[in-house]
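Our example pasted here:


***
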Amino acid sequence: MNNNDMEAIDKKINEVANDELNEIEKHLTEVQEDALKDKIYEMTSNCSKDELMLVAKLLIKISRKSFEDE
């Protein structure tokens, strides 16, 4: 397999992954809570520590906002 073949395969994998993410995003309001939690867990299992820290910061921000709203 040459470099162009590998690049084409990588490009197709990225397209499929982005298509899946787009579909998830489009239908977020329709997804059952448990299925959504499972998908989030699956997605975060592939994250680096830096990415997990961003997710944690977002969740902390959401939690703080909910305290302010009470």
